[in-house]
Specification:
Helices cover 2% and strands 64% of the residues. With 364 residues, it is mainly beta. The strands form two sheets. The protein has a 15-stranded antiparallel β-sheet with strand order 1-2-3-4-5-6-7-8-9-10-11-12-16-17-18, with no helix packed on it. Strands 13-15-14 form a three-stranded antiparallel β-sheet, with no helix packed on it.
């Protein structure tokens, strides 16, 4: 990808696998080489003109993640077990080596109606600028880019299918991270509508539930709920013990209705919990965006002349319809923010009210 500031990023992934079967056991091995090259501008704020100045030259970083994963699958009646190790190296200016467990056990009950499972894993998670940009489009182009080491991921859950149409999955994950990133205001942005990333050691507990219902190709329903508990490990008195800009829960749902293979209607629903944020100015956002707005109790002054507050939970819904005249011609219309709610997912970046657009697609 490229940008107006001579920014560029290239990401390469190369992998392979091999294995053999002995009786009921599968002996497998996977290999993966993950390389990322990024060229970033050096950006500063000219306080006399309040304009961004681009420094000479580019900051170039090339990093690689090497993964080797030998493991064994074994099956015994309704029991399936995977036991292995994941040897990984995160290579930037120097190499960091990790040895993670790769273990999962599941047991089928009542012909896959209920499948309890548990596991213990770890991973070096690749953070690219493009990945972060897709998550937060207001990110600055000169962010400090590090990979996240998931030191441990212990999980337990139950999944299954109550019928051929209805499936479910419920789980709890307890994870331990190094270099888990959060979003904070970019001090070079006078409007505070651009973001940098900051990294911390984090313990995170996630409670997840998801259900799906599918009646052939005519009707598809899906729902997912996640609740997060963050605990940051503070090694410096200057660090914050707050998961900035991360919601405490998220609820998503979708519905797809296919009418006579001609008219397809889709709806997406999002419910996002409150987010801890801060500003270098006393927040003046309206009551419908900030919690505890009454009597100026909505913020706390913290270190370095910062004001911490919470953005309210919000609901958003999108609705779209597509009419397929034939295999080559179709028309669509889409309503974003169908409820016309005024909210901010990221600080100082208000969403537009309801917007409508449509078009025609042609295939040749």
């Amino acid at each position: 990808m490229n940008s107006n500031y001579q920014f560029s990023e290239n990401h390469f992934l190369l992998g392979g696998h091999s294995g053999w079967v002995i009786l009921e056991n599968e002996f497998l091995g996977t290999f993966e080489l993950d390389v990322n090259n990024i060229n970033q501008p050096s950006l500063t704020l000219d306080t006399s003109t309040y304009q961004i100045q681009v420094g000479e030259g580019l900051n170039t970083q090339t990093s690689a993640i090497l993964r080797l994963n030998p493991h064994i699958y074994t099956r015994k009646d309704n029991l399936i077990a995977k036991v292995g190790l994941s040897l990984q190296s995160d290579i930037v200016s120097e190499a960091k080596f990790y040895l993670f467990p790769d273990i999962e056990v599941s047991y089928s009950l009542f012909n896959d109606v209920f499948i309890p499972y548990a596991g213990w894993k770890g991973d070096v998670q690749r953070n690219t600028f493009n990945k972060i940009r897709l998550e937060n489009p207001f990110i600055s182009e000169d962010i400090d880019l590090n990979n996240t080491a998931q030191r441990s991921n212990l999980y337990v859950g139950i999944r299954g299918s109550l019928s051929s149409k209805f499936t479910f999955n419920f789980s709890t994950n307890v994870e331990r991270f190094d270099n888990f990133y959060f979003y904070v205001p970019d001090t070079t942005s006078s409007l505070e509508n651009k973001f940098q990333v900051t990294y911390n050691k984090v313990n995170r507990t996630t409670v997840l539930g998801e259900v799906t219902y599918q009646n052939g190709e005519k009707l598809k329903l899906a729902g997912k709920a996640e609740y997060f508990i963050y605990k940051l490990k503070i090694e410096d008195d200057d660090d914050d013990a707050i998961a900035w800009q991360r919601p405490d829960f998220m609820l998503t749902g979708s519905a797809i209705l296919d009418l006579s293979d001609k008219l397809i209607i889709r709806s997406d629903l999002y419910l996002v919990g409150s987010r801890n944020v801060y500003s270098y100015q006393i927040p003046t956002l309206s009551n419908n965006m900030v919690e505890n707005f009454v009597n100026n109790s909505h913020f706390d002054e913290i270190s370095y002349n910062r004001y911490a507050f919470k953005l309210k939970p919000f609901v958003d819904m999108n609705l779209s319809a597509e009419y397929r005249y034939n295999d080559k011609v179709s028309a669509f219309i889409r309503f974003n923010n169908f409820t016309a709610k005024r909210y901010q997912f990221w600080t100082n970046t208000p969403v537009q009210s309801i917007n409508i657009f449509g078009g025609v697609t042609l295939s040749f």
